[in-house]
Design goal:
Elements: H1 5-25, H2 33-59
């Protein structure tokens, strides 16, 4: 599989949509601290992935 600018841009955009969804979940009652922590871990993972993909995009 060839990774090109379009593919990377698509992945970044999809991850940003998921970040927005997870940030909106912060406003909801997540029931308990485990759900909150899981949400935050997913959010931080995606933010790191976006940063990495943006760095990669800048190098190609």
């Amino acid at each position: 599989m060839t990774i090109n600018r379009e593919t990377i841009t698509h992945l970044i955009n999809e991850d940003k949509k998921e970040v927005e969804r997870l940030e909106n979940r912060r406003q909801e009652d997540l029931g308990n601290s485990i759900n909150y922590i899981e949400n935050e871990l997913q959010l931080q993972h995606l933010l790191g992935r976006i940063e990495g993909l943006e760095t990669l995009l800048g190098k190609i």
